[in-house]
Specification:
- It comes from Perilla frutescens var. hirtella.
- GO terms for molecular function: glutathione dehydrogenase (ascorbate) activity; glutathione transferase activity.
- Keywords: Detoxification, Glutathionylation, Oxidoreductase, Transferase.
- Belongs to the GST superfamily. DHAR family.
- This is Dehydroascorbate reductase 1.
- With about 270 residues, the protein is α+β, with helices and mostly antiparallel strands.
- It contains nine helices and six strands; from the N terminus they run βββαβαββααααααα.
- Strand 3, helix 1 and strand 4 form a beta-alpha-beta unit.
- It is about 40% helix and about 15% strand.
- The strands form two sheets. It has a four-stranded mixed β-sheet, with helices on one face. A two-stranded antiparallel sheet has the order 1-2.
């Protein structure tokens, strides 16, 4: 197997991951500026005006290549979070698949730590899904995915408790209950504040949590024959709603190795 399926100068590797075939309209990026305007219909002189501009070249995103299915996206909820953000903001992008078992030199030259996801913005390569999604929100603020600070931590402990339960070989060690406690807390929150974490509108915190819940659902179902209890109806409805969004179905179609990716945690 070659060290990289796609070279740095390559164009898109997967038609299913492109946006162009899904719409006859040109891709657009929304930027907001302030201009001076005359007083018309008693509007203030400083008026915020939204200007619609065509998007620039597709953004380059380095992602993990599948270990079992060449030319497919591997199992990484953090990468999927970035792709969901791009999809929700209607930004075109090109994927550059990286074999993380045999990292090519061109990739190490832009990512010395050898980690993905990685995105190129303003001629700079930016790592870390937290940093990437924040940078995308600042550069492309429309549509907004901003999450109020007081809601940003909702569901943040679910992923770590899921890993603890997945790795556990002792049914009585409390890891299952720890996960149930976190899911119950999310269920109570959604009951009062849903359907999304920020109410009616999807936001960045949902795009971070959704891929983790997807991995949780697949991995625990396979390795422990475990599923989220029906009593947590708001969590199950939340997952169904997000998993059915166009952005999620498009990115999920490319994700491979969810089961294989968690095998080392289970068998290690």
């Amino acid at each position: 197997m070659s060290t990289a399926k796609i070279s740095p100068s390559a164009t898109a590797i997967s038609a299913t991951m492109k946006h162009f075939s899904l719409s006859h309209l040109p891709r657009r990026t929304f930027l907001t500026t302030r201009i001076r305007t005359p007083v018309i219909c008693r509007r203030p002189r400083n008026q915020a005006v939204t200007i619609c501009l065509k998007a620039s070249e597709p953004l380059q995103v380095c992602v993990k290549e599948s270990s079992t299915t060449p030319s497919k996206l591997g199992d990484c909820p953090f990468t999927q979070r970035v792709l969901l953000t791009l999809e929700e903001k209607h930004l075109p992008y090109d994927l550059k698949l990286v074999d993380l078992r045999n990292k090519p030199e061109w990739f190490l030259s832009i990512s010395p730590e050898g980690k993905v996801p990685l995105i190129k913005l303003d001629e700079k390569w930016i790592p870390d899904s937290d940093v990437i999604t924040q940078a995308l929100e600042e550069k492309f603020p429309k549509p907004s995915l901003a999450t109020p600070p007081e809601k940003a931590a909702v569901g943040s402990k679910i992923f770590s408790t899921f890993i603890g339960f997945l790795k556990s070989k002792d049914p009585s060690d409390g890891t299952e209950q720890a996960l149930l406690d976190q899911l119950t807390a999310l269920n109570s929150y959604l009951e009062k504040n849903g359907p999304f974490i920020n109410g009616e509108a999807i936001s960045a915190v949902d795009l971070s949590l959704a891929p983790k819940l997807y991995h949780l659902d697949i991995a625990l179902g396979h390795y422990k024959n475990w599923s989220i209890p029906d009593s947590l109806a708001y969590v199950k409805s939340y997952m169904k709603t997000i998993f059915s969004r166009d952005s999620f179905t498009k990115t999920r179609a490319q994700v491979q190795d969810v089961i294989e990716g968690w095998r080392p945690k289970v068998e290690g």
